[in-house]
Specification:
InterPro entries: YjdF-like
Radius of gyration: 18 Å
Largest sheet: none
Number of domains: 1
Number of helices: 8
Order of helices and strands: HHHHHHHH
Pfam families: DUF2238 (PF09997)
Helix content: over 70%
Protein name: DUF2238 domain-containing protein
Number of strands: 0
Strand content: under 5%
C-alpha cells in the first residue's frame, strides 16, 4: 500500500496536468512499462519477487549462482529500469516546456532522475525508521548497508547510458564524430 501511494500521487499529477503536458506514445509506453515492473515488485514485495525461477525456466541458468548473489536483486533492477525508462519521457517534457535542447535538456532530465531517486530512498528510510515492523517489507535493503546508494547509482547509470546512446545516435545520423 505504501509503495503504491507514489503511483497514485503520480497518476493524479498526470491526470490534472494532462492538458498542459503531452507525451508521445513512446513515452507513455516507457512509463507504463516502468509501472508494470514496479507493480510486480509491490505484488510480491521487492525481496520476494521470484525472478530467479523465471529466468531459470527461460534460460536454464540460475543467475544467483552465476553471479554469486546473496540477495534478491529485483529492487535494483527496477531502479535501473527507472533510469532507463523514465529519463526520455522527462527529457521530452523538458524539451517541450522549457525549450531546452541538446545536452542541457539531457542534463536536466538526468538530474531529475537522480533527485527523484534520492527522494524515494529518503522516503524508504523514513518508512523504515517510523513505520515500525513493516519496514522489512517496505525497504528492500535486505541487510545491505549501501542499498540506497547502489539503488541511486543504478537509476543514475541507467539514465546516463540511455542519454549517451541517444546522443551518440544523433551524432551518427548527422555523420559527425563527437
Amino acid at each position: 500500500m505504501i509503495e503504491n501511494s507514489l503511483v497514485v500521487v503520480g497518476a493524479l499529477a498526470v491526470w490534472f496536468t494532462r492538458h498542459r503536458f503531452y507525451w508521445t506514445p513512446r513515452s507513455w509506453a516507457l512509463v507504463v512499462l516502468f509501472l508494470c515492473l514496479h507493480q510486480v515488485g509491490t505484488h510480491y514485495t521487492y525481496p520476494g519477487v521470484p525472478y530467479v525461477a523465471a529466468v531459470e525456466n527461460l534460460t536454464g541458468q540460475n543467475i544467483e549462482q552465476l553471479f554469486g548473489w546473496q540477495r534478491n536483486h529485483y529492487d535494483r533492477f527496477v531502479h535501473l529500469g527507472y533510469g532507463v525508462l523514465v529519463v526520455l519521457p522527462i527529457r521530452e517534457i523538458i524539451t517541450r516546456e522549457c525549450q531546452l535542447k541538446g545536452a542541457w535538456a539531457s542534463l536536466i532530465a538526468w538530474s531529475f532522475v537522480l533527485s527523484t531517486s534520492m527522494l524515494y530512498e529518503l522516503m524508504e528510510w523514513i518508512g523504515a525508521q517510523y513505520v515500525g515492523g513493516a519496514h522489512s517489507v517496505f525497504v528492500g535493503a535486505q541487510g545491505d548497508i549501501w542499498d540506497a546508494q547502489k539503488d541511486m547509482a543504478a537509476a543514475a547509470g541507467g539514465a546516463l547510458l540511455v542519454l549517451v546512446c541517444r546522443g551518440h545516435s544523433l551524432w551518427a545520423r548527422l555523420g559527425v564524430r563527437p
